[in-house]
């Protein structure tokens, strides 16, 4: 039995030692440089004030013209071509001109370039040498599934010192992603390698999912067998721990023992990052819950709602359904908004606990009174608007976290999903509340734990290379 364990660990170790080293090294990089994205602050900073004079059609007319029959949200933004309604449903998004109701899908590369230049100017970026870069359906930075509803994308290189590139949606005309040269470079040494994320593989999500899940499981098996062997081969001489090995094998044994707890929990939690519903729930709304959240309102029920006065500085207006009511949300500053309900003359900043409680009663039975999520909660969720409340509603063993700014369900936490939060996120990223409150300590711990894992992996590479060389030289 022990001989089989030795052989299996040896050859799995040879097969995966490079992968282990890559995961530990790139994990450090990823902690400091995340995968490229357009933050809400960046998106909002580039919005221009909405031109009220261009609003010549109603919301109901815009929804009808979009063809999105299950529309649940409509936003009004100002683009280079004029004011545009962005009509969104559960599965697709379309843009409609606010002045004429015509399809505002972006077909012109010149207009995409103009939109990118305006976006860059408002963010203080140099776009004097901006130009279109050919882009097919996917590239390395636009490969995530979240961009599917915006494809094909226009990619614009600003030609600035930072090497900034912007991606413009052909469906809505909005900038949906930005990257910079340094960010891209570090991500080649971070996320792309860590997630095994080359475009050719990641563009087929199902294949990528199966490949990375299988590799992670085999790596976990290799590490587990190594831990068993490491403990069995341990020797005690008096009060001192010793190893029967010499040289690189001894270093591999002792460093492996010292790092065993972290290596096993980190590889295990990394494997769980690819769970996607295999062992734990996905945290997604059930069909019945989604039907409640995605009820399309009667957009003709409040024909004057889109004609109400708005401040001249408003940079985005959104109409959305929540709990059977239609709301309008005006945003002028990133962290400030005005919220109004159709048929109600009063204005608030965010949804109230009572309004959230009314929706929760439709989602599930036995729901309690919503509570505002604490900053240091063990199951964190963050509003799209800085400073906005996130309400947690407990419906027995089922929890919902709802954004008080725009009514989105941020998290659905059943017992399985709550367990997953600790087995995956806490163990893999060390986002324990006490460490999140002390980010420098968390940084030191992540680097300090990954570094021995990297050293341990490098010793495995040396041992593996020597084994292969002696095997094939014989």
Number of strands: 17
How would you describe the shape?
globular
From the alpha carbons, calculate the radius of gyration and give it in angstroms: 26 Å
Segments where pLDDT lies below 50 for 5+ residues?
A: none
Structural class comes to alpha+beta
Instruction: Give helix % range.
Output: 40-55%
Q: Beta-strand level of the residues, as a percent range?
A: 15-25%
The major β-sheet equals: 7 strands, antiparallel
Q: What distance separates the N and C termini?
A: 27 Å
Structure annotation, total helices: 14
Strand order of the biggest β-sheet: 3-2-1-10-11-12-13
Provide mean pLDDT, rounded.
92
Task: Considering the chains and any ligands shown, give keywords for the structure.
42% helix, globular, 18% strand, alpha+beta, 7-stranded antiparallel β-sheet, 474 residues
Description:
The protein is α+β, with helices and mostly antiparallel strands and about 475 residues long. The protein has a domain of about 150 residues. Strand 8 and strand 9 form a beta hairpin. Helix 1 crosses helix 8, helix 1 crosses helix 14 and helix 9 runs antiparallel to helix 12. It comes from Bradyrhizobium nanningense. Pfam families: PepSY_TM (PF03929).
């Amino acid at each position: 039995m022990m001989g089989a364990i030795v052989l299996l660990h040896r050859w799995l170790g040879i097969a995966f030692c490079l992968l282990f080293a890559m995961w530990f090294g790139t994990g450090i990089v990823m902690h400091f440089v995340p995968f490229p994205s357009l933050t809400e602050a960046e998106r909002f900073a580039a919005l221009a004030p909405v031109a009220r004079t261009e609003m010549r059609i109603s919301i109901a007319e815009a929804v009808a013209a979009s063809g999105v029959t299950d529309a649940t949200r409509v936003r009004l933004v100002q683009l280079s071509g004029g004011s545009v309604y962005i009509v969104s449903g559960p599965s697709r998004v379309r843009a409609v001109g606010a002045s004429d109701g015509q399809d505002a899908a972006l077909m012109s590369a010149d207009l995409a370039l103009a939109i990118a230049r305006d976006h860059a100017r408002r963010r203080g970026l140099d776009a004097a040498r901006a130009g279109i870069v050919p882009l097919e359906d996917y590239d390395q930075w636009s490969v995530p599934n979240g961009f599917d509803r915006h494809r094909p994308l226009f990619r614009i290189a600003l030609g600035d010192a930072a090497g900034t590139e912007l991606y413009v949606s052909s469906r809505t005309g909005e900038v949906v992603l930005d990257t910079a040269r340094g960010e891209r470079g570090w991500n080649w040494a971070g996320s792309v390698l860590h997630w095994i994320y080359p475009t050719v593989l990641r563009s087929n999500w199902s294949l990528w999912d199966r490949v990375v899940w299988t590799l992670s499981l085999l790596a976990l098996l290799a590490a587990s067998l190594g831990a068993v062997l490491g403990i069995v081969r341990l020797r005690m001489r008096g009060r001192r721990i010793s190893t029967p090995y010499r040289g690189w094998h001894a270093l591999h044994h002792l460093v492996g023992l010292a790092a065993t707890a972290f290596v096993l929990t980190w590889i295990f939690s990394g494997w769980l990052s690819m769970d996607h519903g295999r062992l734990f729930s996905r945290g997604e709304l059930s069909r019945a819950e989604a039907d409640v959240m995605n009820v399309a309102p009667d957009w003709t029920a409040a024909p004057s709602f889109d004609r109400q006065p708005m401040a001249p500085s408003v940079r985005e207006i959104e109409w959305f359904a929540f709990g059977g009511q239609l709301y309008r949300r005006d945003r002028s500053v990133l962290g400030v908004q005005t919220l109004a309900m159709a048929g109600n003359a009063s204005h608030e900043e965010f949804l109230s606990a009572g309004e959230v409680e009314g929706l929760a009663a439709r989602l599930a039975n036995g729901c309690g009174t919503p509570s505002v999520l604490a900053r240091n909660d063990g199951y964190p969720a963050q509003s799209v608007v800085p400073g906005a409340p996130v309400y947690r509603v407990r419906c027995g063993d089922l929890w919902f976290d709802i954004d008080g700014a725009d009514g989105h369900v941020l998290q659905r936490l059943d017992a399985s999903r709550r367990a997953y939060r600790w087995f995956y996120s806490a163990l893999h990223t060390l986002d324990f509340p006490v460490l999140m409150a002390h980010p420098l300590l968390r940084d030191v711990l992540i680097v300090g734990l990954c570094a021995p894992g990297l050293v341990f992996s490098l010793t495995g590479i040396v041992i593996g290379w020597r084994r292969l060389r002696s095997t094939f030289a014989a």
